[in-house]
Specification:
There is one protein chain. By secondary structure, the protein is an alpha+beta fold. It is built from 15 helices and 35 strands. The strands form 6 sheets. Strands 18, 19, 20, 21, 22, 28, 30, 32, 33, 34 and 35 form an 11-stranded mixed sheet that branches. Strands 12-11-17-8-9-16-13-14 form an 8-stranded antiparallel sheet, with no helix packed on it. Helix 3 (about 80-90) runs parallel beside helix 4 (about 105-115) and helix 9 (about 360-375) packs across helix 14. The chain is globular, with a radius of gyration of 27 Å. It binds guanosine-5'-triphosphate and magnesium ion.
């Protein structure tokens, strides 16, 4: 039987997980001599490469001495925490990375809490010790305190610690040791991570934790085998969470080696392999012995905390830029997403709209971004938190928030967060002269906060947050202070009128851009919306031609991105998303109707 170790790499965002996996791949000699490999090779999809963040967890396998090490790289951003939760059940150990300067951050807490819950003993890797401001001793204390706070047992408190600079390719047991290579970390994995339990002689039990597809064989389930063997060509029962069973033959069995996949004939308990042949294989399904099927526990992932209404684009520019624009197409696409993305939910709401729920704005934003790249066109409303009722009490999600600010911005940060019902739990002066403030805050209070925070701290503040728990509803309502500049006509924007409007606020559009009545074309400098005309040209005399447009000096417009728009919009606004554009509009495009609604709202107060 092959000696196997299964580990996941977990951490807060950007603490160096994918970079570490690069080095483990390289230094184990897994790559062929001539193989060309990109930096952060595991971040293989387009958006991951563009943004330098991991979105989906992915697995790889390396051979070290007489061991095979299956490694799952996980995302660190809080919105993708659901990915980490399901992966932890598939492994026998974790490498917990902590940035030697930043220390324990919100998502460090979240992932470590889950790992402790699964009974895992973390191998702690204090990473980026090369950084100027690094303070490994302080960070180690923080990790220890966190484990105590998480009720870790005695074995877990005896966790092994290494010091590393993943980027520079070394890890070591003591700070004084020579900075050489990853051998100490390989040894730590072999010595400290337990072998898989379960036996190849038992009846087969495997569980799917990720899906993939292949043009030739269709859906593929990436599974961890807990017991028995899986053989190509043999029949197994696929058991779903609802108990339904289907019998099928494994048409293809795929093993992992570095970034490659290799066809294999057989695999056994302890290993991670990809299985083809089950048409409706899904995340969480068990692959079982056909005569004695014993399903594994279904996967539990915490419920979504944020939702947004997605609907068919019904604006005047609808259908001009997208390929898939109908409610049927959107529904089909969302249903497909929900099959693989177990941390998200979708609910049709009637009249061509759908409620899409997830862990945060980024997670929903990435889905929307993927859809627009696939040619979809649609609208999104303002994100809302998912509330629920417990024993007759209305509950809302709370987040753990950490902000790092230069001292002079401490006051404004505390004041603004106070208005958003944040409760400060800790204030720590950091070695680099900044102040670290920690809060517990209703997730609702965070919607739209990032923009304001960056403005208030002149771009120098850093904020991080992660889901905490549901608590009693606090009744906060935070809305954007500045109003919107709303176009009162349809057509192409004219430079001269944009020039004149610049005095009223920040523009979102450039000359010649298509606008329509009810479209938001800028942020007003004052509260309250303002209807403006971006189409008015300069009164032309017979002497002047429209060429004079070139002479006016325009400020570069603020670029509206999908995520900045989600942060910015109010309840009565929508984001229009097409493969080419992101526009903001009023829900009601008719100025008179908007006035009437505003009046009614005022009267009802
Ligand atoms: N100075 C320094 N930088 C590092 C080190 N390791 C990684 N980095 C840098 O940290 C950044 C983030 O690295 P990633 O490997 O993408 O981090 P990650 O934890 O995978 O990030 P997510 O998957 O998005 O959570 C990159 O710019 C790396 O080059 C290190 O040892 N020292
Ligand atoms: Mg990563």
């Amino acid at each position: 039987m092959q000696k196997i170790k299964n580990i996941a790499v977990i951490a807060h965002v950007d603490h160096g997980k994918t970079t570490l996996v690069d080095q483990l791949l390289q230094q184990s000699g897994t790559y062929e001599a001539h193989q060309e490999v990109q930096e952060r090779a595991m971040d293989s999809n387009e958006i991951e490469k563009e943004r330098g963040i991991t979105i989906l967890s992915k697995n790889t396998a390396i051979v070290y001495g007489d061991h095979k090490i299956n490694i799952i790289d996980t995302p660190g951003h809080a919105d993708f925490g659901g990915e980490v939760e399901r992966v932890l059940k598939m492994v026998d150990g974790v490498l917990l990375l902590v940035d030697a300067q930043e220390g324990v951050m919100p998502q460090t807490k979240f992932v470590l809490k889950k790992a402790i819950g699964f009974g895992l003993i973390p191998v702690v890797v204090i990473n980026k010790i090369d950084k100027d401001g690094s303070d490994p001793e302080r960070v180690l204390d923080e990790v220890f305190d966190l484990l105590v706070a998480l009720d870790a047992n005695e074995d877990q408190l005896e966790f092994p610690v290494l010091y590393a600079a993943a980027r520079d390719g070394y890890a070591k047991w003591e700070m004084e040791d020579e900075s050489k290579d990853m051998v100490p970390l390989f040894d730590a994995i072999i010595e400290k991570v337990p072998y898989p339990v379960g036996s190849p002689d038992n009846d087969t039990q495997a569980q799917v934790f990720t899906l993939d597809s292949d043009n030739f064989v269709g859906r593929i389930g990436i599974t961890r085998i807990f017991n028995g063997k899986v053989k190509k060509g043999d029949e197994y029962l696929l058991v779903k969470a609802d108990g339904s069973k289907t019998k099928s033959r494994i048409s293809k069995l795929i093993g992992f080696k570095g970034l490659d996949r290799v066809e294999i004939q057989e695999a056994e308990a302890g290993d991670i392999v990809a299985i083809a042949g089950f048409a409706d294989i899904d995340v969480g399904d068990s692959v079982c012995d056909k005569s004695n099927p014993v399903a594994l526990d279904p996967m539990h992932v915490e419920e979504p905390t944020l939702s947004v209404i997605m609907s068919v684009n019904n604006g005047p520019l609808a259908g001009q830029e997208g390929k898939h624009v109908t409610s049927n197409k959107i529904q089909e696409r969302l249903e497909k997403e929900m099959e693989t993305n177990i941390a998200m939910r979708m609910e049709p709401m009637g009249d061509a709209s759908f409620k899409v729920s997830g862990r945060g704005e980024l997670q929903i934003g990435i889905l929307a971004e993927n859809m627009r790249r696939e040619g979809f066109e649609f609208m999104l409303a303002r994100p809302e938190v998912v509330t629920k009722e417990e024993n007759g009490v209305k509950m809302e999600p709370f987040e753990h928030l950490v902000v790092d600010v230069p001292e002079e911005f401490q006051g404004v940060a505390i004041e603004k967060l106070g208005k958003r019902k944040a409760n400060m739990t800790l204030l720590t002066p950091m070695p680099d002269g900044t102040i670290r403030l920690e809060f517990e805050i209703p997730a609702r209070g965070l919607i739209g906060f990032r923009n304001e925070f960056l403005t208030d701290t002149k771009g120098e503040g850093i904020m991080n947050h992660s889901y905490l728990e549901y608590r009693a509803y606090t009744g906060t309502v935070v809305s954007r202070t500045p109003g919107a500049l709303v176009s009162m006509d349809d057509g192409e924007a004219v430079a001269f009128s944009i020039f004149n409007l610049q005095a009223r606020g920040v523009m979102f559009i450039s000359p010649q851009e298509k606008v329509y009545s009810g479209m938001v074309i800028g942020e007003s400098a004052r509260p309250g919306d303002l209807d403006v005309n971006p189409l008015k040209g300069k009164a032309l005399t017979n002497m002047r031609t429209s060429g004079t447009d070139d002479a006016v000096k325009l400020v570069t417009p603020r670029k509206i991105t999908l995520e900045s728009a989600m942060e910015w919009i109010e309840e009565d606004e929508l984001i229009e998303i097409t493969p080419l554009s992101v526009r903001i509009r009023k829900k009601s495009l008719d100025a008179n109707e908007r006035k009437r609604m505003a009046r009614d709202k005022k009267n009802s107060k």
